[in-house]
TrEMBL record:
InterPro entries: Transposase_IS66_Orf2. This is IS66 Orf2 family protein. Pfam families: TnpB_IS66. It comes from the Bacteria. NCBIfam families: IS66_TnpB.
């Protein structure tokens, strides 16, 4: 189905900023060359420009790429300003980002992973 991003296995955010003039091929090249990842996996790749008022999402649907674009009329996305890298985020962090919140919520309850003892 066109645009069903709910089937994405992982969500990756390109921290820093990206040239928003890039199209699908340019964003795929960033994923492959800069992040050493495969853009043909069922993952969401999020990109933002310098002003952080625009967002592009790249997603492989199995038969072609989907490119989503959102421009805010007022406000900015709370985008991580780390060096240019890919960072995995959860679906909750993705929701926070789209709602204008920081993905690094200091008071959010974090999941605990327990090591398996043999």
């Amino acid at each position: 189905m066109l645009g069903d991003i709910s089937k994405a296995e992982q969500i990756y955010i390109a921290t820093g900023y990206t040239d928003m003039r890039k199209s699908i091929d340019g964003l795929c090249a960033i994923v492959q060359q800069n992040f050493q990842m495969n853009p043909f996996q069922k993952n969401l790749f999020l990109f933002s420009g310098r002003k952080h008022d625009r967002l592009k999402i790249l997603y492989w649907e199995g038969d072609g790429f989907l490119l989503l674009y959102k421009r805010l009329e007022g406000g900015k996305f709370q985008w991580p300003k780390d060096a240019q890298a890919a960072r995995s985020i959860s679906i909750q962090e993705f929701r926070w980002l789209l709602e204008g919140l920081s993905i690094d919520q200091p008071k959010a309850v974090k999941k605990v992973t327990i090591a398996k003892v043999i």
